[in-house]
User: Fold this.
Amino acid sequence: MAVLIDGTALAARMTRETAARAAQLSLQHGIVPGLAVILVGDDPASRIYVERKLQRAGEAGIRSIEHRLPAHTDQETLLALIAACNADDAIHGILVQLPLPAQIDPARVLDAICPGKDVDGFHPVNVGRLSTGTGGLVPCTPLGCMRLLETVIEDFRGLKAVVIGKSNIVGKPVALLLLDRECTVTITHILTRGLPEIARTADILVAAAGSPGLVRPDWIKPGAVVIDVGINRVRGIDGKARIVGDVASEGMDHAAAITPVPGGVGPMTIACLLSNTVRAAERRGA
Ligand code: GUN
Assistant:
């Protein structure tokens, strides 16, 4: 039987540690970590994600400020809000929930966030730091994937890692983190030829393609560790909506370990966001 890696439990432990760091920062330096969360429009999934982030922030001793802007908000208005958050000493982390409405260029927005407050790790300075292994804030979902892997893998050196998905949010950064741990990394995507054969070479498989049930049991090498980043809303035959991952939920007994959906990567993304926020505040207090 494959070990189920419990992301909910690990995220709860991480959040307790983050709360302890926040309490120490407050006690020693009088700094309460502050997080500004900006949501433009009313995408239902984004709203749920943002609500969860705000709720968990409170549990970690982080003061969060929510900015909800209407879907027709123009780019200049959003850039002005980011500039105000950059200048506000009580704000240590700024998060702009993606995706943004079509009239706003996400690159312009992400470039405008002060790199030291970029708790998503999406600013080009932080992307560059990640690619050169020189510190910086690291994107939350990839960081969460690494924390989950560390619960079952002691030594990453020389392992073959296959990442399915090439997004800036998950695929590319998780590949860089695995490379930094001396894995041999192959980045693939939905159009990669011979994807099942490549997946079958993996000691570590990270599925982040946003394609429900893409990864079949026969894509998995016996003894592999599988991280399922997919959060896909599908309708079952009973007509009810449910969340499924990118990896088939049955027939994975030959894997060494696998993350469930829900309860795997999802909670870790938020736990890492909170940790990044306190880290950004600690740097300011240092
Ligand atoms: N949308 C989907 N994932 C993310 C994330 O990690 N950060 C932000 N800001 N938006 C997202």
Notes: Residues 95-98, 120, 140-141, 169, 269 surround guanine (CB under 6 Å). DSSP finds nine helices and eleven strands in the chain. The chain has a mean pLDDT of 97.
